[in-house]
Amino acid sequence: MQDKQVAGLFLEIFLVVAILGSLSAVAIPHVSQMIQKSKAEARATEYQDITTAVAEMLLESNSGTLEPIGPTTDMSEVHTRDATPLVLSDYLLGRKDNVTLGCSYSFTADGTVLQMMP
Question: Which of these, 3, 6, 62, 104, has the minimum number of CB atoms within 10 Å of its CB?
Fold first, then answer.
């Protein structure tokens, strides 16, 4: 009787592990896809925030132009050509410590923003 109970217990454990393995084989790819999708959406939102801030900064600028800058993740380096330059990081409200999502950005004099993926 004892051997039958032990064998039944091992069979139950084996079935539970097999079911959990099957569920995780289905779930893990979907979770990975959701993570990738959310990262892409976050990058798009960040890009929109930066381009909106650049447009607002250029509207308030006397010169209406930026000092062109190559790939950077530090938004405090982006400024206008005014005598007292306006700085982009001042226009990015809600962006804590100018943290970008792994993307770097280039800025042209006319305010065009290019996002470079990591």
Answer: 3
